Structure formats: structure tokens, C-alpha cells
Amino acid sequence: MASVWFAVVILLSIQQVFAIHRECGEFKNLKNCNDCIRCGGHWCNDPNEVKRCSRDRSDSWCKGKTETLFTATRVEEKGTLLSPKYILQTLEVGSRTSLNFTFPSKTSEQKVTYIVNSTQNSDFQVTKQTYCNGETCTTTIEAAPETTFCAADGKTYEYFNVKVSVGGIEESSEIKFHVPCACGCSEAVEAMSRTCNRRGSYSCGVCTCEEGWVGTFCEEPICEKKRGDVPCIDSGRNYPECSGNGVCGRCDQCECFPDREGSRYFDKDNYCADICMTINDCEQCLESHLPGPCQDCNFPLFNRPLNQTLLTYKDDFNRKLWVKCNTTINDCNIEYAAMRESNGETFYMIMNSCDPVTGEQVVGGVSLTLPVVLGVIAIAAVAAATAGYVVWKNRTPPMPLTDPMYQNIDAEDCTGENPLYKPPTSSFKNPTYGKW
Ligand SMILES: *[C@@H]1O[C@H](CO)[C@@H](O)[C@H](O)[C@H]1NC(C)=O
Ligand SMILES: *[C@@H]1O[C@H](CO)[C@@H](O)[C@H](O)[C@H]1NC(C)=O
Ligand SMILES: *[C@@H]1O[C@H](CO)[C@@H](O)[C@H](O)[C@H]1NC(C)=O
Ligand SMILES: *[C@@H]1O[C@H](CO)[C@@H](O)[C@H](O)[C@H]1NC(C)=O
């Protein structure tokens, strides 16, 4: 008896397993091991097998990868008058078994009764039949747990007990049926599994994908919108699809690098364009060097005097607020630092330029906040300068760049100075702005 209870203790200690629903329907539609077992099927742990749950086990189906349910070692103990007096055996949902009990026919009463109890629903059939032959009677108890026996939160093993009594005999018999109600494999869950492309957890050969992914191996993204215009499908090809600042990711969208200089400003919705690319498009602003807002740009862009201290500022993620950029306009190298506020206002500070006039301005360090009046004047100056610039820009170059005499032109000695462009200091004298 001690060994029997020992076995029972082990079985009861098996961890609880939860399942989602309990409607069985067709076996081939059962997509999780617990449901399959509860419904009396066999489960296939091979993710490549199409039919995961099957009533029958054919030889060709799921070779060597079916989930094996632990079968309790059968125990049977003889009784003296009513025998056997104890039986422990496994009985799967959907199957049935018959057990014979014998007792002497000479007992005055031969009325056989049984009572049943269970750790689950009382959805099982038990029938009895008694035949007497000579000095011995045999009662056959037939038992079959139905597909509704296991509750949705059934444990790996559940039980139902049948206690058999015969009128006139003191001793009674007990049958303990041990019914698998869930899968052992569902207890071994591999989180962020490699099998599921690290996008889901894996157990019983099934990937449970995290949000945004579907597919047997969580390989298929759920896409709200596809990028569509440029194919962004080859993760090895990151340029020009993602501006060199990211790679093609799911849903044909660019996934920008999070850890580069300027990552803070990579525009996910615009092919990971960085702040330098965006500002470089506003050539006229970069060339003009006018402090304050620049009107020749399709977004709010402001020039401010160089302040080295600002270049050291970092955000909460230890990323530089100001990003160094450069560009070449008409053979003139311009180096500047840029940053963008959360409201979209973008600022730049010229660090180096081939324009000697600007060079002076940069070193001089202009007061940070410009008077509004000056801002307006500056805008006018930009407009005037721009008109002239267009004429100037379309001129024929005074000296061909291929001329060997002019090949080693240093950026600092850039000769392409716009004759019409004059920094505002020389055109406007603002009495409130004496520093200029
Ligand atoms: C149980 O008893 C019945 C009737 O006596 C007999 O036909 C059957 O073979 C027995 N079954 C087993 C498993 O002994
Ligand atoms: C169920 O039946 C078994 C065997 O007859 C008995 O040991 C157990 O105490 C019963 N459990 C309940 C809850 O009645
Ligand atoms: C640079 O900016 C910081 C912070 O705005 C300011 O405290 C400092 O005075 C500025 N330095 C110069 C030289 O303007
Ligand atoms: C920026 O400078 C680097 C070298 O310092 C140069 O290779 C690159 O072409 C420059 N970029 C632009 C846009 O001028």
C-alpha cells in the first residue's frame, strides 16, 4: 500500500497547466497540446507537421515526435472475499476499460453497488454487469471518461474513483483511474525561443508569438502599413533604402540604428533620414550664415552662433544633443552642429566654413537671442541676398576648376565668394546690436 500512495503523491505534485477553451470539435483544428489531450487526441510536437492533433496514430504521422503521456504503473491488489480490492490504472479520455471483480456466490445478498467521485467533472460513464456461475459471481465494471471530463484548467493528471460494494460483504473495492488532462510538455516553456525567431515562446512544438508577429515560427509580421514605394526587404542592403542609418525591417519599414551619433534624430518615417541630411537640403540657409530663422527651408530652421559648451550636452540616454554635420556647397566645405527640439524647430551652429567672413563671425560669438527687430531685418536681408545669389550661382565659373593652377585650392581660400552676398553687419547698422 505504501508504494501505491507514493506513486499518487508524485502524480499529484505535477504542476498545474492552464488551457484556454474546452470545445473539442475536429481534431485537426486543435492547435494546442492541452486541448488535444483533453479531447482524447494524440499530439504531435513537430512544428513542421500540418496535422498537430490526431485521434489515431498512423505510422506515417509525426514519427517519433508525438507527446508521450506518462502512464501510471498499474497496481492491483487482491482481496479476500471481494477481489481485487484496489486497482490503480491510467485511462485516457475517450477510451474505455472493463474490470472484473469476483466474490463468492453464497453470500445472502448479491446486490452490487458503486459510488463514484472525481477531481474533475463527473463526465464519465460507469456501467456494471454481474454474472454468477457456480460458486463465483463476476461483476464487470466498465468505465470511460468522456471528452468533457477534463476541465479547462485541468492538471496534467486528474483522477476518478469508483468504490464497489457487495451487499453482505464487509470489504469494498476501490478503483483509481488516472486520467491525463493536459500535456507535460506545456510546462517546459522556452521564452523568446530561437525556434520562434526570438519573437515568441515555445512549448509542445508551438510558437506563441509576441504581438505583431504570426506564423508557425513567428516569421510573419502583422503589417498595418507597408512601405511599398521602395522594396525594403533585403536586410543586407541598407543603403539607400534606409539612408545608411538603418536596415530594412518588418513590413518593409526601415528600422533605424539606435546607437549611432545622431540616432536621436533619425526619422523612422522618412527612411531614417538624419538631421544633417535634412539640413543639407536647405543649402541657401547654410550658405547665408544669417543668424536667426531662415526662411529658405521647408521646416523651421534657425542659425545660432557657435557655443562649444552646447556641444557637450547630452540627453537622458547619454546621446549628444548636438550632432556634427558637414556638407559641400560649390566646393565649399561647411561644418556645423545641429539639433532639433521636440516641436520640430531645428537649430544649427556653423563650426567651420570656407567663407572667411563667417569665420570671423564664428570666432566672435554673436549674442544668442536676437532682438525681434533684427530678426525681421535679417529675413529681409536673406530675401535680398537670395535673389542676388540665384543670379550669381548661375554664372559661368570665372576659372575652370580643371585648370592645374587652381587644383589645390584649400577650402579656407575658397575663391567662390558671392559678390552680392554681404553679411548683415555690413548692410545694416542696428544701434541696439552694437557688438557687430
Ligand atoms: C470479465 O468477465 C467476463 C464475464 O465473466 C468475461 O467474459 C471477460 O472475459 C472478463 N474479462 C477479463 C478482462 O477478465
Ligand atoms: C473519493 O473516493 C475515494 C475512494 O473511494 C476516497 O478515498 C476519497 O476520499 C473520495 N474523495 C472525496 C472528495 O469524496
Ligand atoms: C553657451 O550656452 C550655455 C547654455 O545655454 C550658456 O550658459 C553659456 O553662457 C553660453 N556660452 C557662450 C559663450 O555664449
Ligand atoms: C564630410 O567630411 C568627410 C571628411 O571629413 C567627407 O568624406 C564627406 O564627403 C563630407 N561630407 C559632405 C556631405 O561634404
Highlighted features:
binds 2-acetamido-2-deoxy-beta-D-glucopyranose, 5-stranded mixed beta sheet, Immunoglobulin-like, alpha+beta, disordered C terminus, Laminin, 4 domains, 436 residues
SSE layout:
Blueprint: H1 2-12, H2 33-38, E1 42-43, E2 53-54, E3 75-77, E4 86-90, E5 97-104, E6 112-118, E7 124-133, E8 136-145, E9 157-166, E10 172-180, E11 200-203, E12 206-209, E13 213-214, E14 220-221, E15 246-248, E16 254-256, H3 275-280, H4 283-288, E17 292-294, E18 301-303, E19 323-329, E20 332-340, E21 346-352, H5 356-364, H6 372-393, H7 424-427
Parallel strand pairs: 4-10, 18-21
Antiparallel strand pairs: 1-2, 3-4, 5-8, 6-9, 7-8, 9-10, 11-12, 13-14, 15-16, 17-18, 19-20, 20-21
The structure holds 2-acetamido-2-deoxy-beta-D-glucopyranose (4 copies).
Provide the structure class: alpha+beta
Ligands (ions, cofactors included): 2-acetamido-2-deoxy-beta-D-glucopyranose
Instruction: Write the element-wise H/E pattern from the N-terminal end onward.
Output: HHEEEEEEEEEEEEEEEEHHEEEEEHHH
Tally of alpha and pi helices: 7
Give the total of beta strands.
Answer: 21
Main sheet overview = 5 strands, mixed
CATH class division of the largest domain: Mainly Beta
Strand order of the largest sheet: 3-4-10-9-6
